[in-house]
Amino acid sequence: MTDAPDHLVVFTPSGKRGRFADGVSVLEAARKLGVDLDSVCGGRGICGRCQVQVAEGSFAKHGVESHADHVTPWNAVEDRYATKRGPLADGRRLGCQARLCGDLVVDVPPDSQVHRQVVRKRAEAHPIEIDPVVRLYYVEVDEPDMHDPASDFRRLQLALARQWSVENVRADLAVLAGLQKTLRAGAWKVTAAVRNGGELVALYPDFRERAYGLAVDIGSTTIAAHLTDLTTGEVVASAGLMNPQIRFGEDLMSRVSYVMMNPGGERELTASVRGALDDLVGEVAREAGVERMDVLEVTVVGNPIMHHLFLGLDPVELGGAPFALTIDGAYEARARDLGLSIAPGGFVFALPCIAGHVGADTAGVVLSEGPYLKDELTLLVDVGTNAEIVLGNRSRLLACSSPTGPAFEGAQISCGQRAAPGAIERVRIDRDTLEPRYKVIGCDLWSDDAGFAGATAATGVTGVCGSGIIEIIAEMWLAGIITQDGVIDGSLAARTPRIEANGRTFSYLLRDGEPRLAITQNDVRAIQLAKAALYAGVKLLMDRYGVSRVERITLAGAFGSHIDVTYAMVLGLIPDCDLAKVASAGNAAGTGARIALLNAASRAEIQDVVRRIEKIETALEPAFQEHFVNAMAIPNKQDAFPELEKVVRFPEPKVLASADEGGRRRRRREG
Amino acid sequence: MTDAPDHLVVFTPSGKRGRFADGVSVLEAARKLGVDLDSVCGGRGICGRCQVQVAEGSFAKHGVESHADHVTPWNAVEDRYATKRGPLADGRRLGCQARLCGDLVVDVPPDSQVHRQVVRKRAEAHPIEIDPVVRLYYVEVDEPDMHDPASDFRRLQLALARQWSVENVRADLAVLAGLQKTLRAGAWKVTAAVRNGGELVALYPDFRERAYGLAVDIGSTTIAAHLTDLTTGEVVASAGLMNPQIRFGEDLMSRVSYVMMNPGGERELTASVRGALDDLVGEVAREAGVERMDVLEVTVVGNPIMHHLFLGLDPVELGGAPFALTIDGAYEARARDLGLSIAPGGFVFALPCIAGHVGADTAGVVLSEGPYLKDELTLLVDVGTNAEIVLGNRSRLLACSSPTGPAFEGAQISCGQRAAPGAIERVRIDRDTLEPRYKVIGCDLWSDDAGFAGATAATGVTGVCGSGIIEIIAEMWLAGIITQDGVIDGSLAARTPRIEANGRTFSYLLRDGEPRLAITQNDVRAIQLAKAALYAGVKLLMDRYGVSRVERITLAGAFGSHIDVTYAMVLGLIPDCDLAKVASAGNAAGTGARIALLNAASRAEIQDVVRRIEKIETALEPAFQEHFVNAMAIPNKQDAFPELEKVVRFPEPKVLASADEGGRRRRRREG
């Protein structure tokens, strides 16, 4: 007898090669060589994930003559698959069915790779590979046998070990409680969802190939959830709702006060946010047509107070110095312990907090934007009631938060409102006539376009939202209505009736009618205070880093997504920078949660990065005050904006006789 | 400058020795040498656990001149300790306060060792060391600092790592929820209860040195709990109550039937047993004067159905072949997930099940009796509705269960009842007159003693309990009232009116009066069937092991504790053996739970032993039937009892004309 012949197989694109005996399947060969070829059903011809393309021809480069008939012919299992799931693309075979009978070059198409890359790339950083913490394994489990008293769970463990090399799987009682029924309902063929290669989180009585996870961003105002296919990385349903904690207080500090005043109030706040998130689970599951039980993992970002309240940790210490967190590291808990009804053994992973004021939301932004992967010195700003600021690059990262207050969200502004249809979000002021024109959310026309009144009849024009406030004050400065110090020039009342006196100060009338919308001196002051706090925080980080300019600026969060970055720079929220490198990142925190959902390694990565971030406590820095005072000016008393001035014509410096009352005095004198 | 002198220190009884610099404390020296010297407070002079005795004199053996003044003098910290906690024994010092200033021989008394040995010894096996899974650590935690945003938990982790080398402790949210308040209430000095060196299960705002655990035996009829001091091994409170599942069915199978007939019924049964156990936690805690929160760990044994129901696992599959367990290995779950209110992060450890009919209770017996540690071939029998039987020694262990039915518990017996005051538990029959005398539970007098009627007036004489049934039937055989085949000899009606005809069979009148107690032919048959099943199981194991006799027999469980082992052997429940080596072990299952509570290593040990046990399924063994038939005879048709015959005089073999009706026929002929 002679030895059976063996065949040379080369896989592309990896280039991995090896010799195998006659009759070995392409899938087996790929496994032995460590080629990234997917399979959920374990070679049973059910899942179709192991599709490969057999190359035709002579490959001198590989030294292989490859032909379609160098594998066994199309078989009945493939027929069954094609009938059920549709025909395979031309030249494709199921890798588990095609067996070697000659030398071969086999291409593994991208959709057959386990570790596909998510389409979205982090700018100039490495792309995210799909490699979630939970994977599905289809197994056939031995039936119980009177001669061998091994439990059902032990036989499942053995099946996973033998068929998938997944060893010593553990399971929570919630999963074990349904184990026997599921095994019998599936006639001992089941799909196991295994987390981190070690914990059974769900068991299905049939073949499954779709697994889902939920990425959640818990904001003070809204909670957003994105149901994500853990196989493709695709978001299959999104939903958001108001954070019901709002009934306990509009902003974070009033919610902390509620807890301080009402013993046990933290439990109400916790129940409220958990209930809302569980409702969202139901909503996105319904929308995507999947069961709650198909959701295997949840990742969460949020500011420190939301993060703690969701986890059931009392936030009271976060309400005052020294702002001690209960926990800072990434944290995993059973979803059911957090009131979420998903897969019985499913987990929630909360990203780490950076400091008492810099939360898991910022960690999400850092993971999403990846400044630690770049040489470019990047400034990340997430503006909310607190601005959370990160500065750095590959070699060093710094972070702080700065108390901007709610002015950017339209609070404390006489005509301010939340971003909603009818709110003014864009403003232009004519440099000569000082006449404004504006756009409102929900309408693409400017206020001086024909048809604007009709188009906005339904919503009305109701107020000015955060991004509108930024633009109007920047435009007021560019039009010479306010000085560099932020004083409304009362003398302009002579040129336009839009400048109106209010006691000792003046205001600018944006819109006459119902409601009447004017920007008062107090409104300007509120924005100045907010933007000065933000800028002073940025400057502290730049000082600490030892730089006088940054190379890239990314604005994160809802506010950051809506403002025009040029106006933000005109007003001096952010330092000078090439405007081509200033951008909004949208909900970068939520993207960070999605990355943590799709890529297991990213969890250790962000945990590690966060530990390395140097935290600056703005309240303790003596330089803060000076930076703050300089930043009260528009754009800044000290700092130049050469890049900005290439694009925007700054007004002539204007000095009034006396800061606050100058206008009025002059008017009195003139009058 | 010369080097500071160093001193030779020898610790007894370990003999460990080393040289240390001047001023090093005895505790530090002990730690460096790995001497087993306890400390909970970490050398702060609070706990008094590190007490040592400084030896006086010249120790040629060690080459040391040791004197009391070779350590620093008694100090203020020791004064404070003695004032608060009482004076130290003569010559004792706190090891953390006494610092070296000369050579020394130091004795570590047993009560200062961490790994004290529990007094109770496993016969001829190694004794159990106290080394529980949970230990207490007193730590001082850094206060929060604005310059360092480390969370409270991270600072606690660091304190445990620095002060106790306990690294990377984890904590459940239930523990973390109270963390900040506890740290502040304790002014940053707290006692941490850490499980397996890695998980924080409780945190106390003060110095604690007592930790408690609960060993639980969940029986079908009763649940027993023993609150145990994890430091001393002492049981500080015990309590038991009826298993409230009894309202769903008296025996195991009727409870499984309840679940089969009532979908969701398993949840009722689970809630019922968990509620009862949680009540017991409260009861033992109250009795011992400790808080529920001071109970750090629970260990549980029980038969497979109780084990599964307590864990919330549906027992239906255990109700019929192939008797598939959901899980068989040891299992840990959070106490709160099992409805038990103990320390917030406390765990329950359930011992492993051996097979579908051989449960964690038997694993407890095996752990307690340790047959796997001996050369002696030991037979362990735990008699209940099922007899659970283990045979083996160091080299091999076998187990099976045998369906004895409830006869041994007094069920199916016309005059049977549960063991309770008023139940007959001891019986003697005069060989000549065939007159009986008996004792009842709750009274030390025999029924023919003066004063018996008065002494039992309160309880009455109400029936015969399990151990009474064994004795009466054994005595009936010894007195010649029944044949080896178990037939009541009707011809004896001629000699005594206590033999009465009932239709075609006869009965023996044990007691005339109210109630009238008689042993019927059916009663004898029921006991024969039960004991034959038990003995046949034993024989199967002996066959499999390849032996014809055993060297030691231990009876476990409530029934095993009460029966007279000699009568058990006379009746042929157990095989022949030197009676000096046959004993009751009391609640050995519960003892196993207590061992698992006190000694961490025992958990891996029993897990490992159970995996090695060979399980025999009696129903599948062809030889069972033959063994069973032989064992219907008293004591046995085939097997000899030479050891027993040294002590007990067997009656002359008696053969009636025809098995069941012989007596009656003969009487008819005679009459």
Automatic annotation (TrEMBL), chains A, B:
Pfam families membership: Fer2, RACo_C_ter, RACo_linker, Raco_middle
Molecular function terms from GO: iron-sulfur cluster binding
InterPro entries assigned: 2Fe-2S_ferredoxin-like_sf, 2Fe-2S_ferredoxin-type, Beta-grasp_dom_sf, Corrinoid_activation_enz, Raco-like_middle, Raco-like_middle_sf, RACo_C, RACo_linker
Residue intervals of the 2Fe-2S ferredoxin-type domain: 7-112
Protein name (Swiss-Prot/TrEMBL): Drug:proton antiporter
Native source species: Alsobacter soli
